[in-house]
Amino acid sequence: MRVGTRLLTAATGERFRFDAGCFCLELLITGGPGPYQRYEILHEPADLARWLEGSRLAEVAPLSGDDIRIQPAELRRIKRFRDTMWSVARTVAHGERPSSADLEVLNDSAEPPPRPRLDPATGVRQWASPVTGGQILGAAAREAIELLGGDRVERLRECAADDCQLLFLDTSRPGSRRWCSMQRCGNRHKVNAHRARQP
Ligand SMILES: [Zn+2]
């Protein structure tokens, strides 16, 4: 499975692959406010460090939990950013304007991101170690600001299934992605459309 593609479990127990298309939206699948609290997986800093190993940040350069240092206060800020991003991204995907208070949370989170470097011995790209919680927050917030303030915002979508709230950035060439996952909502739609055609 590609780095950044995640295996999710639906409330029904069904497993499916989901690619959020960018890091700041990938972070949303770690939990969220209100009804999403039951999906929470970031209970302590080590949970986030583990999760990051399979995230899109690890696509740029390998990220090992040993190189990540997250303080509890940083984790709280990352979760606040994440919960705010849920609201902002959903609002924008529905074609509406997010609240200024929410946008200020994103602005306040735009700290310096992790520093990439080249290993002097091998020339291979790395993250300067340790990668801090503040840098993780910065990476997500800077990406969110660039996304929301740029042309690609048109590609920020909510899954087209009525009962699915997953948000993603459509990175497909034609820009025609409608579903969180073809395996799940895309397939459910196909089956329902087929049933509707039966006499
Ligand atoms: Zn869906």
Automatic annotation (TrEMBL):
<dbReference type="Pfam" id="PF11706">
    <property type="entry name" value="zf-CGNR"/>
</dbReference>
<feature type="domain" description="Zinc finger CGNR">
    <location>
        <begin position="155"/>
        <end position="198"/>
    </location>
</feature>
<dbReference type="InterPro" id="IPR010852">
    <property type="entry name" value="ABATE"/>
</dbReference>
<protein>
    <recommendedName>
        <fullName>Zinc finger CGNR domain-containing protein</fullName>
    </recommendedName>
</protein>
<dbReference type="InterPro" id="IPR023286">
    <property type="entry name" value="ABATE_dom_sf"/>
</dbReference>
<dbReference type="Pfam" id="PF07336">
    <property type="entry name" value="ABATE"/>
</dbReference>
<feature type="region of interest" description="Disordered">
    <location>
        <begin position="99"/>
        <end position="122"/>
    </location>
</feature>
<dbReference type="InterPro" id="IPR021005">
    <property type="entry name" value="Znf_CGNR"/>
</dbReference>
